[in-house]
Amino acid sequence: MSFLNRLQPLGLLFLRLALGAVMIVHGYAKVFGGMHHFAGTVAGLGLPWWLAYFSAAAEFGGGILVVLGLLTRCAALAILIDMLVAIVKVHWKHGFVSEGNYQFPITLAAVAFALIIFGAGPIAIDALRSGGGKGR
After folding, report:
1. Buried b or exposed e, range 103-122, using 16+ CB within 10 angstroms
2. Looking at the chain, which terminus has fewer C-beta neighbours within 10 angstroms, N or C?
3. Which residues make Cβ contacts (< 8 Å) with residue 90, sequence separation at least 6?
4. Tens of pLDDT, residues 78-129
5. What's the CA gap between 131 and 71, in Å, rounded?
6. Where are the chain's structural domains?
7. What would the DSSP string read from start to end of 5-22?
8. Which among 119, 118, 25, 28 has a CA at the least distance from the CA of 72?
9. CA proximity to 55, closest of 70, 68, 37
């Protein structure tokens, strides 16, 4: 099954597209119309309200960067931190299987972590910027 090794760049592309699309959709509502409400939600979690702006930037802006494969590791790190905060502050109390659980955010965090470790892959702007290497 070594022929599958040749498909690894596509695997990284699909990971980026899936994570980026989900994060863009989650961040879009916050950036375009829901920021005031989201800032209140963040404050209600015991965090400074202004962290809502960092979260929205990580989700919307980070999602765009991940899809493009531009500054992928940095964007994936921001997404990972965003998801870890969401797990700890919102989802953990619901457990792994009940409604509001942390299955989805931990999956997104795992994909972000994989992109931090492996980079964007050769089908990315990062690869073009680094001279066609493995991507950053």
Report:
1. eebbebbebbbbbbebbbbb
2. N
3. 45, 100
4. 999 999 999 999 999 899 988 889 999 999 999 999 999 999 999 999 999 9
5. 14
6. 8-129
7. GGGHHHHHHHHHHHHHHH
8. 119
9. 37
Q: Measured between alpha carbons, how far is 15 from 77 in angstroms, rounded to an integer?
A: 15
**Cβ contacts of residue 126 below 8 Å, gap of 6+?**
69, 70, 71, 72, 119, 120, 135, 136
| Residue 92: closest CA among 128, 58, 47, 83 | 83
Q: Measured between alpha carbons, how far is 111 from 15 in angstroms, rounded to an integer? A: 7
Token pair recorded at residue 11 = 């695997």
Tell me how long the chain is.
136
Confidence (pTM) = 0.92
Query: Which residue in 6, 16, 2 sits closest to 136, CA to CA?
Result: 16
The tokens for 63 are 């999602």
Distance CA 42, CA 55 (A): 9
